[in-house]
User: Fold this.
Amino acid sequence: MRQYFNPVIPGCYPDPSICRVKDHYYLVASSFEYFPGIPIFESIDLINWRSLGCVLNRPEQVDLKGSNGHSGIFAPTIRYYGGMFYVVATNVSHGGHFIVKSKDPRKGWSNPIYINQEGIDPSLYFERKTAYLLSTAKDHGKDAILISKVNLDTGETRGPHYLWHGDGGRYLEGPHLYKINGFYYLLASEGGTEYGHMLVLARSRTLLGKYIPCPDNPILTNRNLGGYELQGTGHGDLIQDINGRWWIVFLGFRQLGQYLQFHTLGREVNLLPVVFRNNWVNIKDKIARLKIMTKRKIPRQKRLKDKQQKDLKIGDDLVFLRNPNLKNYKLTPTLFKLKGDGLLSERMISPTALFTRQRSFNDSFSAKVDVKESRAGLTVYLESDQHYDLILEERNGKWILSRRLSIGPAIDEKVIASVEKVSGKGLPKLMIECKKGYYILKARINNKNINCGRYDARFLSSEVAGDFTGVMLGIFIEKQGTATFSEIEIKRNGRKLWERF
Ligand code: 6LW
Assistant:
C-alpha cells in the first residue's frame, strides 16, 4: 500500500476542475475578488501540483469592480478538445458566464467571450464537434441543470433543455458531464458548500436524458462525520489517468478543531481514487479522509516550499484585490515599493495590497517595512471587514506600531509601541505566526521583540464572514505616501503540513 495526504492542493482553491492531455493533468479553481483570476496547476501524477499562474492575468480579461469574497469569479471548468484548452466560468459581479481559450496554458489565454445563459457553475461537454454548455438553472423555481448547444466563437446558445432536477438536496450545482462506456454520467453537488455538502450522480443512455439518479447517492459526503477533520466535501470532477484508472478531485475544508466548527483556510483540493461498479461511480466508504492508502502506483508527495521575496511571482504566490492600479506597485526581486490608495476595508476600490494564501495551519509570514508619510503593514485578511492588521507609521522620528482588529462593524485599533528611530539598527520587522485556532502578531524593532498579541482565528472564518474565500496573508499601505517591503518570507510549516486534531 502507498499513501498520500489530502488536500493535494492546500489553501483556498475551491471548485476544482481537471482535464488530461496525454500524461499531463491541468486543474483550475475559483478566485472570487482576487486578480489575477482562476489559478491553474499542472501535474504528471495527480499528487504533486505545480502552479502555472492564472488564466485571467490581463486586466482586460476580467472586471472585478466592487467584488468581494462571495462574488467575482466562480467555479471554472477546464476541458481540452480538438487541440484547444477551454475554460468556462462565471463573473458573478460583471458579465456572467464566459469562455476563454488557449493552445498552451503556459502562454496565456484569450479574452473572454460572454455567454448568455442563467445560473452559475458552467461546464462544457463536447461530442461530434458540437460544444454543449451546462449550468445551474431554475425550472419553475426548482433547482435544475440546464444544457444547451454553445457556439464557442460567439457565445450564442441554442436549444436549452433541463437535463436533471437533482436527487432532492438543496443547491443542485457544479454539474460535469462525461460519456463513459456507453453511459452519459452527470456529476453534481447538493447540500450547499458547507457541512451538508455532497456529490450526487445520475446516468442516461442518451445525451438529453432521461437521467436516472444513482441508487447509492450521495456518492460522497462527509456530512455525517461530526467533528471530523475534513468537512464540506463536494463540487468535483472525474478524471481518467494515463493508466486507465479513475480519480475524482473535489473540494473540502479542514475544521479548526474537533469541536470548533470553523474553517479559515478556505475550501481546498482533495483527491480520491474511484472505480466503476455496476456502471456507477464508487468511492470507498463514500467518505473523504486526509490520509489515503491505495494500491495504485503513486509518487512520493512533496511538501510545499518556503518562499522568499525573490521567489514570489504574481499569479503563483501573490494576488491583488479586484482591479489593481498597477502604477501603485514597483516590484523588484528584493524590494516591493507600494504607493497608498485608500483603505484596506474599502470595497469599491482596489486598495494597494498584495496577498498570499494561508496554506497550512502553521504558516508564518514576515517582512521588513520602511514607511514614509503613510501607514503600512501586514494583514491576516479574509475580506474587507474581517482582518487583523499590524500597522507601522513613522512620526516625529519615531516608529509607531499599532494592531487593528476588524471584525464586521467592530473595529479596534490600539497603539502597541512607540519607539525612537535609531540609525544603524535596521528596519522594523513585522511578523504573523499562524496557529491552529489563532494568529500571533509580533514585531522586532531596534533589535527588540515586541509582542502584539494573539487573536482568535474563528472571527476570520467562513462561518463568521459567510464568504467563499480563505485567509490571505498580505502586505498593505493605507495612506498616500509610500512603503517599501523587503526580506519578505513565507514559511509553509515544513514537516507538519497535514495537521491532525
Ligand atoms: C460554486 C458552487 C459552490 O459556484 O460554491 O461548492 C460556489 N460549490 O458550485 C462558489 O465557490
About this structure: Residues 48 and 253 are 19 Å apart (CA to CA). The domain at 13-218 is CATH 2.115.10.20 (Tachylectin-2; Chain A). Helices lie at 462-465. The pocket of (Z)-L-Arabinonhydroximo-1,4-lactone is lined by residues 14-15, 30, 74-75, 120-121, 173-174, 189, 193, 234-235, 251, 468 (CB under 6 Å).
